[in-house]
Amino acid sequence: MRLTEVELRRLSLPLVRPFRTSFGTEVKRDVLLIRVVNDRGAQGWGECVADSAPLYSSEHVSGAHMLIRQFLLPRLAAVPELTAHQVAPTLAAIKGHTMAKAAAEMAVLDAELRELGVSLGRHLGAVRDAVSVGVSVGIADTLPELVEEVEGYVEAGYRRVKLKIEPGWDIAPLAAVRSKFPDMALQVDANRAYTLADAAHLAKLDAFDLLLIEQPLPEDDLRGHAELAQRLTTPICLDESIVSARSAADAIALGACSIVNIKPGRVGGYLEARRIHDVCAAHGVPVWCGGMLETGFGRAANTALAALPNFTLPGDISGSDRYWHRDLVTTPALAHDGYMTVPVGPGLGVEPDVPWLEELTVSTETISF
Ligand code: OSB
Ligand code: MG
Q: Membrane-spanning residues where (predicted)?
């Protein structure tokens, strides 16, 4: 395909409740959507997972918007026979900016698959029609509020809960949640809030029978994670540290993790995400699909990815109602009994709720080639 028109749309969505992690609190989501149109009139949608501030990684949504417009689109529009698989090589000279690149690739891939009449799940190699999902629970103000929130998700059918932790909010919340739900699958995510000097403290988490501890140390501290792994019985899972299939292979070889969280935005797209899945499978390392508070576009694609065979742990793919009063797509996906259905329609398999999109839109820019 040749790109003929691209729309960059910025929207502001209020969250159902604030989401607090060790690096900040979000009360609304600044979403950047990309809609591409090709020379045959086919359209595709991409969602950029960058946040309004560069706190999770160095990217932020305004920077991604500018980068896509100024550096990515001119290169992509110059390719006469563009395919989704050529997006990453075409953009390889641009350093970093995986979330911006992932959004562009997602839109091209959606357009390509819609034209072919093939679903993303089928294209990636899905082996399931539904995937097991969990919910990520932010840091609360008090322990009773946390337990009440977790209870709501358990009643909604989620079978795995992930608690966000940080120094000062780790042992007590785990003790409170574990004593109330003795058999529930439970894991924690520190978003880099500790150092190796906290190893003895982190070893206390071993008592709570956790599935894993996610990203306890800084993203560039693979060696520290490898040392920590020697001192904990809880498996270490990496999120922020894994930015490519190569970095996944390195982390595994160093013994820095025994489980990998795959987020397509963090690694440059769904195609690299699949390569990470394959590298991990080859090493016997289970993976699961992370989340970035995506709307229905990103969640649909993540559900398709999570249907690959080595996604053996529940993903952070909670239903639309966990974050949104009303989603951006016409068929918002809800979790039933802890499962989300893999979309079967062509491409992402979801359609925009156009009137609602218009209402939430802060700015739109259309670029023609
Ligand atoms: O570290 O997994 C994380 C959300 C934003 C940034 C980082 C993370 C998260 C989550 C939320 O844990 C997962 C979700 O989308 O529900
Ligand atoms: Mg994480």
A: none
Which CATH class, in words, describes the domain spanning 3-117+353-368? alpha beta
122-341: which CATH topology? Answer: TIM Barrel (3.20.20)
Amino acid at position 145, single letter:
E
Q: Which pLDDT tens digit goes with each residue over 190-220?
A: 999 999 999 999 999 999 999 999 999 999 9
Q: Which residues, in sequence order, are CB contacts of 282 under 8 Å at separation 6+?
A: none
pLDDT in tens, 327-366: 999 999 999 999 999 999 999 999 999 999 999 999 999 9
CA of 299 to the centre of ligand 2 (A): 16
Closest by CA to 234, choosing from 178, 309, 305, is: 178
Strands of 43-48's sheet, edge to edge? Answer: 43-48, 24-38, 3-21, 361-368
CA distance 70 to 74: 7
Q: Which of 95, 101, 164, 180 does the annotation list as catalytic?
A: 164
